[in-house]
Design a protein that fits this description.
Elements: H1 3-6, E1 8-10, E2 13-16, E3 21-23, E4 31-33, E5 46-51, H2 53-63, E6 68-73, E7 79-82, E8 85-91, E9 99-105, E10 108-112, E11 134-139, H3 151-164, E12 170-173, H4 179-189, E13 196-198, H5 203-211, E14 219-221, E15 236-239, H6 247-250, E16 256-260, H7 267-272, E17 277-279, H8 287-297, E18 301-307, H9 309-318, E19 322-325
Parallel strand pairs: 3-4, 4-5, 5-6, 10-11, 11-18, 12-15, 12-16, 13-14, 13-15, 16-17, 18-19
Antiparallel strand pairs: 1-2, 2-3, 7-8, 8-9, 9-10
Amino acid sequence: MRADALLYPAPEGLYCPEGGFYVDPVRPVERALITHGHSDHARPGHVNVLATRQTLDIMRLRYGDGFCASEQAVSFAEELWVNGVKVSFHPAGHVLGSAQIAIEKNGTRIVVSGDYKRRPDPTCAAYVPVPCDVFITEATFGLPVFHHPDPMDETGKLLASLRQFPERTHLVGAYALGKAQRVIRLLRDAGYAEPIYIHGAMEKLCDYYIGQGVDLGELLPATIESRDKSAFKGAVVIGPSSAFADRWARRFNEPLPSFASGWMMVRQRAKQLGVELPLVISDHCDWPELTETIRELHPAEVWVTHGREEALVRWCQLQGIKAKPLHLVGYEDEGD
C-alpha cells in the first residue's frame, strides 16, 4: 500500500482514512490516537481517544473527566486493529506515557514518532526504535547547530549557583509535564536532598508521577502566604515560566531566575526572557540524535514535522533517503 494513501496531513492533523482516525489532531474529531499528554498533541473534545493509560490519566488531570466521550487504554507493544488497520504504541522517551504510534496495512508500516528523546531519563520509559518503511520524525531542534550538553552537567551549574549565592531563591522555570519532574529527578540524582518547592500548577502532575513510581524526594508547596519569606533563602523553587513574570515570583528572597529548556542554547532567547541561569535541558532530540535515529532505523522514507523541517529533509536526501516536510501547524514546543 502506498504510504501517502495510508496516512496524510489534513487540516485536523495526520489522517488515516483506512482506519478512520487521526494522530494528535489539533481540533475535535471522531477518533483520535494520542502520542502524549502535552497540550499541543493532546487536546480535549474528541469523541473516542486511544492512548497509553498514563497519557489518558494525564489528559484527565489537565482537562477533567469530560475530556472525551470514550477512552481506550493501550499497553506498549500491544497490537490493536482499528477498522482493519494494525496499530501499536511504543515508548518515545519524551515524558511519562509518551509513545510512538506504528500504523500498518498491507505490508506498509509508518511510525509516527510524536515527540521523542534518546537521552536516559528515569521519569519515563526509554525510547525504543521501531523498524518501519516510513518514519515521521519531529524536528524541534532540527538544525546542525543544536548539540545538547549532558543534562547532569547543566544540573551541576544549578548546584554551583546555589553554593555561590546561598542567600538567593533559585526560581527554575520548567514545563509542568515532564520537564519539571525531570529537573527534580536530576537534582536528586546529583545528590541534592533538600526540600524542593513547587508551584501549585505542578502539584497534581508531580503527585501522579510519584504514584507511578517516580521518586522525586521531598516536595513542598511554594506558597509564600503560608510561610516566612526567609524560608526560601537558598532554596530551589520550580514553576511554569509564565508564573515567573508575575508578582508571585517577585515575592521571593532575591530571586535568581533560571529556565530549563533546549532553547536556552540560544543566548538571545535567554536574555529576552530575563534568565540569569540558563539550563540547556531538553526533552527532544538534538541534531546528532535525530540523524543517528534515522541512520539506525534506515527507513525507505522520512517525513519531517513540527520543527526545522527543511534542514533535516535535505540531510536525508544527501544520505539517499527519500524525505519530505509535512508542514503541519498547531504544534508548539510545550515540552522542549
